[in-house]
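Re: [ENG-882] Designed sequences occasionally contain unexpected residues at chain ends

Forwarding the minimal case from QA. Structure tokens:
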């Protein structure tokens, strides 16, 4: 079961409902502080050096003072600072927990002294503003943000790094880059959307007891959900149990696209992969991937394609080129064969005028456009990310297809209205051929028994996670699609054997203490 993501306004409503139902607000704050303490204690030990905690005047600051008290009681050297423009701006709950921290023996410092006395802190905790930001960072908050960013220590953000708009992802330039963000109750939208997602670090979701009786219609693929979607691998299995795939792609000018699709399918666990390319591309492909079978068809000649009865899933499009020959092949696969189909790249570009026919297909279709392909397919025009999402959701409903809209973040839409955000991936994927690998991954997961929506969402998660793992060993600037395919074994190993502790997004690693090493 995936988790979900909310706007700050929605989260505030859930808070109020929980409190109205009988849970005291101070109990929620204690739970929040305990969750942050738990993560902080996994990032540093008492003997590593001081922990500097920057607390704002609102309830985010109150969470920070609870964390400060718990750290101090556990033997940490805590340097807490209250950043407030006036005494009247301090919320009652923040003040209550400040007093509890001080009465327990803690000292609250001014913003000018905390880093001077802390020296080189082992950890900085950002409890300044959370989702309470309204406008740019100014005054004391700007000074604290600069101090945190310049400390040289890893930053642990409480709910949202200070400076990120929790609804839109818009970000103040002074926003400190978090190593880890602990989200309280639900993940906030601004941590998943650019540019704010670039400062959120690894995201951990903490259950602090907020009851939700009506969840937003927005799912979020986290590690636990992805692990739960993995198709089973019985110990007595044989290759036919893991899917027989027909991959159609490539051209004389672009044979590599077909090979990348094949590599993605093989790395994702397909039992048998048979790649078919147009005859002019056959010499470039033959024997290049020994784990796959290969064959050819005559350009535009549907009768030269093999009998689909021997295959479980068909994927088509990468590297085929736009033109009449591609259109004939793709339309034949879609409308004359009754097989699950994954379409990408040129397989999508030739669909203009045929979209409504997809709804009549008995077998599932998965369409994987990037925004440019979505625009060409639909003729739609939009501004902003939400506009693109609305068009993609409408396309899924109108065609009866699963639509995976690539981007940062990637979103997956079902014909019935489900939508799932996939938070993995990095800028290293912004290179030709990355989507071809993804096409093969999705087809392989469908061949192993995953439903079309689950295969698309899980495939995108694994594809992005593989890229995230790959850039721990090379620069994203140098990342190749084949590197992503090669890192896929590490991604599957992490999902198969990891222990996730609420992990939503992995970015980097801190002392190996937060998640298992794949």
């Amino acid at each position: 079961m995936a988790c979900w993501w909310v706007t700050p306004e929605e989260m505030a409503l859930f808070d109020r409902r929980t409190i109205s139902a009988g849970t005291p607000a101070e109990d929620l704050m204690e739970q929040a502080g305990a969750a942050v303490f738990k993560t902080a204690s996994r990032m540093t030990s008492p003997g590593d050096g001081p922990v500097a905690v920057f607390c704002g005047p609102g309830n985010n600051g109150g969470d920070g003072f609870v964390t400060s008290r718990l750290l101090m009681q556990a033997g940490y050297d805590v340097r807490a600072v209250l950043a407030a423009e006036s005494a009247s701006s301090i919320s009652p709950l923040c003040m209550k927990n400040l007093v509890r921290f001080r009465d327990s023996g803690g000292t609250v410092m001014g913003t000018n002294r905390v880093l001077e006395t802390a020296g080189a802190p082992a950890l900085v905790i950002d409890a300044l503003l959370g989702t309470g930001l309204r406008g740019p960072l100014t005054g004391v908050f700007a000074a604290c943000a600069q101090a945190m960013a310049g400390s040289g220590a890893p930053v642990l953000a409480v709910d949202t790094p200070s400076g990120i708009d929790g609804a839109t992802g818009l970000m103040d330039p002074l926003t400190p880059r978090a190593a880890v963000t602990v989200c309280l109750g639900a993940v906030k939208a601004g941590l998943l959307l650019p540019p704010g997602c670039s400062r959120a670090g690894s995201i951990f979701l903490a259950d602090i007891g907020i009851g939700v009786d009506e969840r937003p219609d927005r799912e979020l693929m986290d590690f636990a959900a992805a692990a739960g979607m993995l198709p089973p691998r019985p110990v007595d299995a044989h290759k036919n149990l893991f899917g027989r795939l027909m991959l159609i792609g490539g051209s004389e000018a672009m044979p590599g696209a077909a090979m990348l699709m094949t590599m993605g399918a093989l790395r994702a666990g397909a039992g048998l992969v048979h790649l078919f390319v147009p005859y002019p591309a056959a010499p470039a492909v033959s024997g290049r991937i020994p784990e796959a079978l290969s064959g050819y068809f005559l350009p535009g000649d549907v009768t030269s394609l093999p009998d689909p009865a021997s295959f479980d899933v068909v994927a088509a499009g990468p590297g085929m080129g736009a033109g009449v020959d591609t259109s004939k092949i793709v339309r034949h696969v879609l409308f004359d064969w009754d097989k699950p189909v994954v379409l990408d790249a040129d397989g999508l570009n030739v669909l203009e005028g045929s979209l409504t026919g997809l709804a009549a297909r008995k077998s599932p279709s998965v369409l994987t456009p990037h925004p440019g392909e979505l625009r060409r397919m639909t003729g739609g025009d939009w501004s902003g990310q939400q506009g693109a999402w609305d068009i993609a959701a409408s396309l899924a409903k109108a065609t009866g297809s699963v639509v995976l809209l690539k981007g940062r973040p990637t979103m997956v839409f079902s014909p019935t209205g489900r939508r799932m955000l996939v938070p993995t991936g990095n800028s290293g994927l912004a290179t030709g051929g990355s989507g071809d690998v993804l096409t093969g991954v999705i087809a392989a997961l469908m061949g192993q028994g995953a439903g079309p929506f689950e295969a698309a969402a899980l495939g995108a998660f694994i594809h992005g996670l593989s890229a995230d793992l790959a850039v721990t060993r090379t620069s994203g600037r140098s990342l190749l699609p084949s590197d992503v395919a090669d890192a896929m074994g590490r991604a599957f190993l992490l999902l198969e054997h990891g222990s996730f502790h609420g992990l939503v997004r992995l970015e980097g690693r801190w002392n190996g203490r937060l998640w298992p090493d794949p």
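QA comment: On inspection the terminal residues look reasonable. Confidence is low (pLDDT under 50) at residues 510-518. Proposing we downgrade this to a documentation issue.
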